[in-house]
Write a structure and sequence with these properties.
There is one protein chain. The protein is α+β, with helices and mostly antiparallel strands and 132 residues long. The protein has a single domain (11-131), classed as Glutaredoxin, CATH 3.40.30.10. 33% of the residues lie in helices and 14% in strands. The protein is built from five helices and four strands, in the order E-H-E-E-H-E-H-H-H. The protein has helices at residues 32-45, 73-77, 91-103, 113-116, 124-131; strands at 11-16, 50-55, 67-70, 83-85. It has a four-stranded mixed sheet with strand order 2-1-3-4. It is globular. The termini are far apart.
Length: 132
């Protein structure tokens, strides 16, 4: 038995579904359930290249919907860091997130240029955790 060998972690999409993100009252023109279903279906079809998680509230509510793209083990080794995407509500953004995650995400693949326009700064608490 090998001790201390960690399994490589895939790219992870952390999808905010808290107080503002995913809230049809705040963004009535967005089908939040469909977007999450689509992200999960993309992960299932990716053959394990990326996974999807949900969380309550990531913090930057004024930039809802927020998705954090966390690098895979290989991406982190190559210098990739968690990337925060704000205003992630339309089909084009969802397509871009799916494509980038399937291609490897931060540190492995370059994000689509249009997606870079939606990158946002994480809240102060998240920046402090990342420095640890």
């Amino acid at each position: 038995m090998t001790v201390g060998v960690a399994r490589a972690r895939p790219c992870t999409l952390v999808v905010c579904r808290g107080c503002c993100c995913g809230n049809p009252r705040k963004h009535p023109g967005t089908d939040h359930a469909w977007q999450l279903d689509r992200l999960r279906a993309g992960a299932a079809a990716s053959g394990g290249r990326f996974v999807v998680r949900t969380t309550d509230c990531l913090g930057p509510c004024d930039q809802a919907n927020v998705i954090v793209v966390q690098p895979s083990t290989a991406g982190r080794r190559a210098g990739g860091r968690a990337t925060w995407i704000g205003f992630a509500m339309d089909d084009d953004c969802t397509d871009d997130v799916l494509r980038w995650a399937a291609d490897g995400g931060p540190g492995v693949a370059e994000p689509p240029t249009t997606l870079e326009l939606q990158f946002v700064r994480p809240p102060r608490e998240a920046r402090a955790r990342a420095r640890r």
